[in-house]
Amino acid sequence: MPPAATQVSATRATASEAPATKAPQNPRVALFVTCLVDFFRPSVGFATLKLLEQAGCTVEVPRAQTCCGQPAYNSGDRADTKAIAAQVIRAFAGYDYVVVPSGSCAGMLRKHYPALFKDDPELAAQAEDLGARTHELVSFLADVLKVKAVAGAFAGTVTYHDSCSGLRELGIKQQPRRLLKTLDGLTLTEMAEPEVCCGFGGTFCVKYPDISNQMVDAKAADVEATGADLLLAGDLGCLLNMAGKLKRRGASVEVRHVAEVLAGLTEQPGIGEGVRDRQARPAAE
Amino acid sequence: MSKQAILGAIRRSLGRDPRDSYLAQARLAEHPRGIVPERSRRDRAGQLALFQEQAEAVDATVVRLAALDEVPEAVADYLKRHNLPGDLRLAPDPELEGLPWADKAPMLTVASGRADPEDPTSLTGAFAGIAETGTLMLHSGPQGPTTLNFLPENHLVVLKASQVVGAYEEAWARVRAAYGPGALPRTVNFVTGPSRTGDIEQTIQLGAHGPRRLHILLIEDEPEAGAGEEGA
Amino acid sequence: MDSTSRSFKDNAKTALSDAQLRRALDNMKEGFIAKRAKAAAKLPEFEALRDQARDIKNHTLENLDAYLELYADKVEAAGGTVHWCATADEARAAVVEICRSVGAKTVTKGKSMIAEELALNEHLEANGLVPVETDLGEYIIQLRGEPPSHIIAPAIHLNKEQVASDFRARHTEFPAERQLEEPQQLVAEARAVLRQKYLDADVGITGANFLVAETGSSIIVTNEGNGDLTQSLPKVHIVVASIEKVVPTLEDASAILRVLARSATGQEFSTYTTLSTGPKRPEDPDGPEQYHVILLDNGRSQMLGSEFQDMLRCIRCGACMNHCPVYHSVGGHAYGWVYPGPMGAVLTPSLIGVEEAGHLPNASTFCGRCEAVCPMRIPLPKMMRHWREREFERHLAPPAVRAGLVMWVFFAKRPELYRFATGLKAMVLGALGRQRGRFAWMPLGRGWTAHRDLPVPEGRTFMELYDERQRAPVRDGIVRALRRGPETERRDAAGERDAA
Lengths: 285, 232, 500
Description:
Oligomer: heterotrimer
Number of domains of chain B: 1
Strand order of the largest sheet of chain B: 1-12-7-4-2-3
Order of helices and strands of chain A: EHHEHHEHHEHEHHEHHEHEHH
Number of helices of chain B: 8
Strand content of chain A: 5-15%
Order of helices and strands of chain B: HHHEHEHHEEEEEEHEEEEH
CATH topology of the largest domain in chain A: Rossmann fold
CATH class of chain B: Alpha Beta
């Protein structure tokens, strides 16, 4: 089994090849790590750091961050959402960019914060400003920094799930695929309906577990049918859901955040795998 | 009175003054055209070809005839080819009634009027053909009983090339020219292919309630338009 | 129709275990979804046409009172009658009164969602009338005594074997040994049965896809031709339509029609689009002698000016439910009232109350596929969220959900405390699950673990690890400086930069 990720030495988009049209030379980037990455999978945060630093960014991690507020927002709790959003707006003021390894949370900052403060001109302007500076990680690399390729290798077949917010709110579709295909040895194979929701939906998956299960079961079947070694996506929520279902079904496919593979940081077990799975895998590496 | 109650509720919700109707009146008077699909803008031959192509794509059949008086023979031929009975109900349209039925199609039994439930086949005229979707526009009136468009299993339509327009908007312009602004015949039917249903397992079946067959006899009354067309 | 929306969860559970329903719903992928995509791709102007359709309807809604008055004047000028009905009760009474006035017995019906909203069939039957649905799908579910499960494909939840068995049970006039295996045989039999009903009917009731203010016309869009037979053969034609169906002009109707069929069934244009203006004219050989329009409000005027106004742009194409993964999972009946899927999740609470229909706007992952395909660009997820906000304000959410949210918000607003708590929890869970990498069970986590494993956190939070990484060079630097002196320290620092 795969991840034969080699040392990534020169992932950075060299100055000659990736002069972003209006991106500063060495942009000062704030990492919004997201609550799920922070808690479940810090590796994704470090992979993000590595990708950004290799691309020439100076990265900082504002300390006053917790969550983007979606759990409250999607539960109809507008007042608390606004309080959390205001906290994020303050914490992330002044950076050239805010980069998020999640389409869902990036979408929250980009699309939904400005709408929350319609009635408060001052905060609305700040929210607009934050939204304009905020990008999902892969889209930031591809669309803003114009990174064309990542150096490195991954021996194996991967399939990519389009997380809903990234796809439909931010238009992220080809960017991750294009970058993944530049890794030596990586084969990308598409599942039947990569754009269909996996059934996570934040609190949806615990409020309507039976429906969520039907959705993630169908997704898992589509993933398994590709025969891929590895399932990737850009949102940890979806990944936890899909990994949890694939493991429950006894599938052998590994599950990772796309940043881990792009950064060549795949030593740690896949999502939902333990030391035991690692030991059980044939030492293809 | 519910009329005033409903209008009052709408005005309260919208915060509108009851006299604020000039915008609406202006739009009705001007009936502005919006986006018209580029595909409808072709030369005449191109429009006819598009009409035919689109109509055939939805299971209508089209035959091109050089002149109106070829219709009886073409109808007889069509009915024979599909093994259909020789009974034909014509729309009470003098132009159709006046065709040489007895000479050219003596085996047919031809009558005109509104549809009888037992009529297997009707032949009607049309008001327009719309190329963008291969759609026929027919309307009610003394020469066009609506039942002829729906009751018989086979609907045959005489359409003149000069009646074919590119887009729906052009057809409306012709309707306004014929009936005046803001007025329509009782029934205006847009017909695009024969009747169909997908209600059983989403498999498309023709002839659900309306005609199973829609056959269009396209009369080339614009020689210059048809000339450039090949393979039509 | 009585709502069972309150028991959405149970309805869903029943639906999910129905293997036959799964098969029927799977047909949607090849049917609706693929066909819509193809039709959209074939028309370069499609996206611009969606914008235009949205704008036309927005303009109409902003001037709705004016357009309704102009429309009604035109209907009356053409010899028709408009019955303004504020409530469902008024509408039902008006329909029955018209039927009585002509001594009607049999009433044929074209497919109409407003008639479903009014539960018109039950009401007609209660008043001694015999309603006959003529749309094939509606006819089938009428035989079965079921409500529709989809707004344009009412019998989408059934397969042909079920239909054949219903036909055998009810069409006893046909020989028992007849073949009914193929859809074509079923369609032919329904055609034969319904043909006589059209001819017997005294009143024909249709819905309306649009009402045209310019001409006072009602428009129906069908593929079968049943609506046309329903409205041409009986002596009375009743149109039941809600107030938001009005559009200004023939051009506007055509503009919206360009996106309707493509979004609904992937057809470029539906087979039959019919405009009816008043009763038959004196010189017409056929057509109805009376033409009535039941113009229904039933709560819609209250949606204007609210955060739900955009919902009134809906043209009932069904694209949102065709593309909804929740609808795909549970089908239409689970939603428990007339309108299923995403459009139902927004509209139903507006019409029957959020207390009754609160589950519907909650049962969405906000995947956004509905909005992505809606021809009228209705922001459905946004409006579902607005319903959740109304629910939250009124404390309608279950106490456990609320308590969990309160606790989470408490921490989310306090970054230091949050870091401490998440750090501790990650450590404990990480240590417990390190070997296996996932939990199959978790206290209070049954919603998740009943169906899937819970991946174990890696054990330390990102913030902790990052803090350590930030502190490490400083700490290491001090240690080195104390040990080796300033010279070596500078060399180390240079080396470290290269390595990074």
